[in-house]
Please model this.
Amino acid sequence: MTGETRELEYDYSRLVVPFGPVHPALKEPVHFKVFVKKEEVVDVGLRLGHVHRGIEALAETRNLVQAMYLVERVCGICSHSHTTCFVGALEEIGRIQPSERALYLRTLVFELERLHSHLLWLGIMAYEIGFDTLFMFAFNTREAVLDLFEEITGNRVHHSMNVIGGVRWDLDGRMVEKVGRSMSKVREAAQRIREIFQDKTVEERLSGVGLLDRGAAQELCTVGPTARGSGLKTDVRKEDPYAAYGALEGSFSIVTRTEGDAYARTEVRIFEIFETINMINEILARLPGGSIRPGETIIRSMNRVPQGEAVSRVEAPRGELLYYVRTDGKGGLRRLKVRTPTLANIVGLRQMLIGGEVADIPVVVASIDPCLSCTNRITVIDLDKGGAGEPLRRRRRKWPH
Amino acid sequence: MGRGLRAAFRALLRKPVRVRYLTEAGEMVPVPERYRGKITYDKGACIGCLLCIRTCPSGAISTTEEKKVEFSVFKCTFCGQCAEICPKKAVKLGSDFELVVYEKEGMVVR
Ligand code: SF4
Ligand code: SF4
Model:
């Protein structure tokens, strides 16, 4: 050792901090390349694809009955949204009209799913701001909803509720009562969670963080609570009612906030919980009688779907979910395209992160409620047929296969 | 402070929140009636129509030499489609969710 010290000069204008795919603050694999200047975020690059599963391609090798269970597995939280969207497209192609009761039951499970998804998200948000007790409390509340799923459909996550032209599981009087009782318990707990989230500390942590103004939210095509937190009054349940939402139109309203920060998105979700509980009670009160599914085997229903194509939209807990379905008329699929809500929302993240601090990244990322394995996509480029850009050609030379 | 202490003492005296789990062999945590667990198969009732194979989403069902079927529980996703489509009600999804075995053989239902 010499006693000499050397001053090192760094150019702080463009330091890159890799964030993920394996990172203690983010539970799902996504890679952010964050350019920082001291503590400030200057730019963000996003890379997806670590957990790509190829479900769209796989669905094309299945028949419609099998594909129904496959699309259910796109997401582990909003599984019912995916089947509702898919079955909506199939019923449009086949001009099949499910019974009133079936539509109401579909809506019931749909809203229960929104309830448990929002409760889960509130728990995650509490965890991200360092409040683990609230995380536990939110998850305990969510448990009551999952128990209802188990009772109604036989599975806590993948409910397998929808079939072509109806639903599989009915609710008897005892269960209706049980759902009602659980709802009043969940409402009580949600009120408590709301009080905690309205505390000054939480408000100061979250307001002004992850700003996305109305114009940018519209331009970047954000959906769901992310868009509603920025003041956009958008909700597929109102704009393009599916299942029984047309009949239930008067029993819920769209919650919006204009601030466009993480706190606004939190508030939107908290108030949506109460809207959802009200709607569930309304559904239970108005549940019509009748059969829940066509009296024919599922194979016959499947064969009644002719060749055709349809686009179907639903409002999943995270926002608008879109399916494009093209059937081949022989009980199979020619093409399936899924646009999940996070795929629309994740582009807004760059806008939200720029100008913020490094320490806010987990909170901002969590505030759009990302579901990353739904979001992974790949681009297939056939280099031999040409059409690929020059940068990709160079990359190929770098990593020969 | 006083409130916190009171809550702490009350929690000490309360019965534990946890659910007792399988302390004796053969004992089961209760599950709801519609629960979809490990498959049970009544071979005598099966007529070998193979409708279940046609609709199983995960390819868990295969044919056997005697024109019956067998189920690989490892591949099964517990969707319940086979139980629904079977015309003879030979397949049911039971309440068993303990799917840890020493031998793989134990996870083939025939
Ligand atoms: S429950 Fe579903 S996945 Fe399992 S064997 Fe039956 S059809 Fe196949
Ligand atoms: S559907 Fe039922 S009867 Fe037909 S092969 Fe399967 S188990 Fe046997």
